[in-house]
Specification:
Number of helices: 17
Strand order of the largest sheet: 1-2
Radius of gyration: 28 Å
Bound molecules: heme C
Helix content: 40-55%
Largest sheet: 2 strands, antiparallel
Distance between the termini: 61 Å
Number of strands: 6
């Protein structure tokens, strides 16, 4: 009896143990169908970095599940479908490129909207410097129409907090402006860029800021005093302060390469009433095919034998010398007429692709590439960006996965 009881008791305990094991097994199985905290945290960070706004638990769960199955791109696509990616992240990404002080605190404008639209539509991003494209909002009642002489359309779009992802549509610049199609050059012929970089001056600013914003180089970085000086305009003194050595050692460094490239803009100006409208808020881009803008002949007595601009023929002197390293396309000739082909020249350089992915890396990772792993990542992003037909979404996705934490 005693034995039986003991046996029974052991049997009971055994049963008990088994059922405990069964239930913990069940718990394990149940747990593994949920994502781990790490994947959830990664999803959270990816969403925050890409959209600028927090996500709902359900969205994070979906993203984390994709991360868990190794499909990071599907996870990032969810975050990039959020309005915040367009209204916050991309807007802040592009706005500093559209003004001279490079501030993010500027109104929405046609340049920014065109960047946002091209990213949304996954347009080959090289088009940004040459396309006959501008993005405008459609389907919102009461919005002022696009205008060459004011920014109201975009200011109202911004003030109304409308979804840029939803309402932006691609239009031809040549349909909405007075520019013929072959005079359009992507964002360089946007109203915002014209107002910022064709205003006053000598049109060299458009080249300088395009280099800064899309090749990640200011002129200091491309200075090369070994290039021929034959295209330097008359306004650049050959002996500043009476010293020709300064010209030969300094001025030449930027102007040999810059002047023959900025000649592409010879027929453009930003026209405004400098007395009634100091900031040029009511001004507009003008294009005078065949007639070189007066600004190309300012101060022509500074050095009368200097180069006289007769047309919009541009040549890239930086294809030789140290700036060969910028990786110019062998499929292009390095010469042409007008802004469109010059923009194509810049956008097909290795420096352009490198710059786009570097900007994306910094925007998403909130740091510059600082160590070797970061540099390897930026190069990988460049390869994938190019292979994906210059897809900015691919670059944003790659950067956010890289910086999603472990
Ligand atoms: C680091 C590059 C760089 C160097 C070096 C340089 N320039 Fe310039 N220069 C520019 C840029 C960029 C502009 C266009 C400025 C703008 O409109 O924003 C410019 C414009 C000019 C202009 C047109 C007037 C103006 O201010 O826009 C003159 C004249 C000129 N430079 C003369 C010189 C002389 C003389 C030297 C040598 C003492 C020199 N530059 C050295 C980059 C350079």
């Amino acid at each position: 009896m005693k034995t039986v009881f003991l046996l029974n008791k052991t049997g009971l305990m055994e049963k008990c143990r088994r059922s405990m094991m069964m239930s913990s097994l069940g718990l394990l199985i149940a747990l593994s169908s949920y994502v781990s905290a790490t994947e959830y945290d990664q999803a959270k960070r990816i969403h925050q970095r890409l959209s600028g706004v927090p996500a709902t638990a359900a969205v994070l769960e979906d993203m984390a599940n994709f991360i868990k199955t190794g499909d990071g791109a599907a996870a990032t696509a969810i975050a990039m479908a959020d309005d915040g990616f367009y209204n916050v992240t991309l807007k802040n990404f592009a706005t500093p490129w559209t003004n001279e002080s490079q501030t993010v605190f500027a109104d929405l404008n046609d340049y920014t909207a065109t960047v946002i639209g091209m990213v949304r539509d996954d347009v080959d991003f090289r088009q940004i410097l040459s396309a006959d494209t501008v993005y405008v909002a459609e389907g919102i009642s009461g919005l002022s129409a696009y205008s060459m002489s004011n920014n109201s359309h975009y200011e109202q779009l911004d003030a109304g907090n409308y979804s840029l992802q939803t309402y932006l549509v691609a239009k031809n610049q040549s349909d909405l402006t007075s520019l013929p199609s072959d005079a359009t050059a992507g964002v360089m012929t946007s109203r915002a860029a014209s107002k910022a970089f064709f205003i006053d001056g000598t049109n060299r600013a458009m080249l300088r800021f395009t280099l800064i914003n899309h090749l990640c180089r200011d002129l200091e970085a491309v200075k090369d005093i070994t290039r021929p000086a034959d295209r330097i305009r008359q306004d650049v003194s050959r002996s500043p302060g009476g010293d020709s050595r300064i010209f030969l050692n300094t001025c030449i460094g930027c102007h040999t390469g810059m002047d023959p490239l900025a000649q592409a803009f010879a027929y453009y100006d930003y026209s405004y009433d400098s007395e009634a409208d100091e900031m040029g808020d009511a001004g507009q881009l003008v294009y005078t095919p065949g007639a070189v803008q007066e600004k190309y002949h300012f101060n022509n007595a500074n050095f009368a034998p200097g180069f006289v601009t007769k047309n919009d023929q541009w040549d890239n002197y930086w294809r030789a010398g140290q700036n060969k390293l910028m990786g110019w396309s062998q499929a292009l000739t390095g010469s042409g007429q007008g802004a469109k082909s010059m923009g194509t020249e810049l956008a097909n350089s290795d420096a352009f692709a490198q710059c786009q992915v570097k900007k994306v890396f910094e925007n998403v990772c909130l740091k510059k590439p600082i160590n070797e792993a970061d540099s390897i990542q930026v190069n990988l992003m460049k390869t994938r960006f190019i292979a994906a037909n210059y897809s900015m979404k691919t670059a944003f996705s790659d950067a956010s996965l890289y910086c999603s934490g472990d």
